[in-house]
Structures are given as structure tokens and as C-alpha cells.
């Protein structure tokens, strides 16, 4: 079958390599589409038909127009994984908090300060009452790979950060700091409503952010049932068929930090390749297998 691949970075994304290899190994043709260079014609032409199924690798830093290409493919009758509507609902961390709250998924206490308003001393002090004592975490709503996440140790520093976000015209997402020793979080990859693979990530060299892109060390994880169930519920809150759910084990409870609509494949595979063989998963192969199962006329049709 013809498999589409939508990505801003296209073939230069590290995850492209294992995914392309899996697509070719399973005998499929691959069509890579860039949301930056593809012109969208309406009404959509009948010819050529869209790929049978398209993997839409669109994350927080993709331009919002990337979703236009996914909507265009769907208007042409194409089957997209993830769908345009699930991508829209998970496109930034503020929208994400609302969807998770709506579905009763626990997150750390958070306060969002709009971009256009000077929060002022009194409102920042009110915000930190909600969050509890420092440290706190300040986030760019559309940050990714750990970029745009900073730990704030004191109220004076928070004032400086708030001014900085205001000057950039960015809403400021403030969050209670979830303390883990050593600093770590869990990434659970959910595909088609079930847990495919999971890892624990550790921040290295004093880094509190555990992202693989920042050099975080990874360890294979078999998620306990409560974590697995929460990850599945978090992915389903957005209707995401492929999702990377980031969770932290706080002192009192498990919380969801964020849900990624285009989870990286390299770090999670590295974690899978550690330790004993049984239970090991080939992540890219499984994702492409899922695409086959949902493609109209495919294995699952
Ligand atoms: N509330 C928090 N408390 C402690 N650490 C956090 C918190 N939020 C994020 N982190 C750390 O920062 C990393 C990046 O944050 P995340 O919200 O996942 O943003 P990104 O989209 O950049 O990955 C997380 O993987 C985790 O290690
Ligand atoms: Mg993350």
C-alpha cells in the first residue's frame, strides 16, 4: 500500500530513519509530504488519490498550518494517524491541560497567565499560592524537546521570567515542580489504545529536564498497571492513536505532564534494546503495523 508521511523536518528527522526502514521492509511505497512546501488545492482534485494511510508527525513546534495539510488529506478521503482533530486538541500545553482536566486526568497544579497582560506582583503572588512553595516550572505553551521549560527557584526570578514572557508576547504556563530523586520522568508510548513501550528518562549532568534530546539517559520500563491505564486514558482524551505520554511519579500521585502527538522513536527503541529479550518491541515496526491495520482495505478492514 501507499503510506504517507507528513513532517516538517521530513527525512531529516531522526525518527524518519527507523520508520522509513519499517515501511520499506513491509513492502509499502512511501510518500513524504512537507506541510511547508505543499500547496493545498480546493476543491481537492480526485487525482492522484491520497495515500491509503498517512502518519502525521506533527508536534508542538510544527507551524499551525501543518494541520491544514492533514485536513486537506482528510478532505481527499485519506486516513490520517493521528487525525487532524486530535492534533488540534493536543497542539499546545495549555489546550492540553484543558482536555486532560475535562477527562479527569491528573496533572500538576498549573496556572496560565495570558500573553497580553502584565501579571504584576499581586497576580504572580496569587499564582504561587495555587502552586505552593518554590521551585516552580515555567513553560512555553508550544515548546518541545525540553526547550521552553525552565525551573524557577524564587519569586524574584519568577518576576524576571514573567517579564520575559510578556516581552516575547507568550502566555506563561507555570506549574508546581514535581520532585523526583534522581530527576526523572516516564514516557509511555500508546498506539491504538494500548501501551506499546515505555521508558524511564533521567536528566543528566544536573539537568532537571529528562528529555532524550537534552542527553537524558533512558531505561526500559514495564509500566505498572495504574501508569499504563493512565497513559491510555491521557492519549484517548485527545483521540490520539499514536502518542507519547509523559508522566511523573509525584510524592502523592502519578501525574501527566504532557501528551506528544509525534513521539520520538530513537530513545524509546534504545530503551527497548536494553536488558533481556522477552517483551522487547520494535517500535517503528509496530507503528507501521498499526497503520496497516487501520488503512481502509488494509489488514484490519
Ligand atoms: N512540573 C514539573 N516538575 C518537574 N519536572 C518537570 C515538570 N514539567 C516538566 N518537567 C521536566 O521537564 C521535561 C520537559 O517538560 P515537558 O512539559 O515534557 O516539555 P517538552 O514538550 O519540552 O518535553 C520533562 O520531561 C520533565 O523531565
Ligand atoms: Mg515532554
Can you walk through the features of this model?
The chain is 32% helix and 26% strand. The protein is built from 9 helices and 13 strands. It has 3 domains: 2-90 and 291-300, Rossmann fold (3-Layer(aba) Sandwich), CATH 3.40.50; 110-176, 2-Layer Sandwich (Dna Ligase, domain 1); 180-281, ATP-grasp fold, B domain (D-amino Acid Aminotransferase, Chain A, domain 1). The strands form 3 sheets. The chain has a 5-stranded antiparallel beta sheet with strand order 11-10-9-12-13, sandwiched between helices. Strands 2-1-3-4 form a 4-stranded parallel beta sheet, with helices on both faces. The mean pLDDT is 92. It has helices at residues 16-25, 66-75, 84-89, 93-102, 120-131, 155-168, 225-238, 266-272, 283-294, and strands at residues 2-7, 29-33, 53-57, 79-81, 110-113, 136-144, 147-152, 172-176, 184-191, 194-202, 217-220, 242-249, 254-260. It is globular and about 60 Å long. With 301 residues, the protein is an alpha+beta fold. The chain binds adenosine-5'-diphosphate and magnesium ion.
CATH superfamily of the largest domain: ATP-grasp fold, B domain
Low-confidence stretches: none
Principal-axes shape call:
globular
Number of domains: 3
Beta-strand residue percentage? 25-35%
Helix content: 25-40%
Please compute the radius of gyration using only Cα atoms. 20 Å
CATH-defined fold name of the largest domain: D-amino Acid Aminotransferase, Chain A, domain 1
Report the mean per-residue pLDDT as an integer. 92
**Structural class by sheet pairing and helices:** alpha+beta
Query: Largest sheet, described in full?
Result: 5 strands, antiparallel
End-to-end distance:
13 Å
Q: What's the architecture of the largest domain, going by CATH?
A: 2-Layer Sandwich
Number of strands: 13
Q: How many DSSP helices?
A: 9
CATH class value of the largest domain: Alpha Beta
Distinct compounds present: adenosine-5'-diphosphate, magnesium ion
